[in-house]
Specification:
With about 80 residues, the chain is mostly beta strands. The chain contains no helices and 6 strands. β4 and β5 form a beta hairpin.
Length: about 80
């Protein structure tokens, strides 16, 4: 699910950060360095054409705010179109 406009995360110690997607599915990726890659396997099935996938990331960033976590913008990915 998507949240537009975003939900403020200031009450959790993250001022100027927003939650743009629901927490229906979460994945933890441990990163070493400054970039990360994540591969999403989508079956080759026409039934998935037009399906929306809403994604957003959150990163630990010591000192960025009281909680030490920052968020990305949200993305709406649409399959096959």
């Amino acid at each position: 699910t998507d949240h537009y406009p975003g939900i403020s995360t200031a009450p959790f110690g993250m001022p100027n950060c927003f939650q743009y997607v629901g927490l229906d599915v979460t994945t933890l990726i441990l990163v070493s360095g400054t970039t990360a890659n994540y591969g999403l396997v989508v079956p080759n099935d026409p039934g998935f054409t037009g399906v929306h996938i809403f994604v957003q990331s959150a990163m630990f960033s010591s000192g960025a705010n009281p909680l030490g976590v920052i968020t990305s913008n949200g993305l709406d990915l649409r399959i096959g179109i």
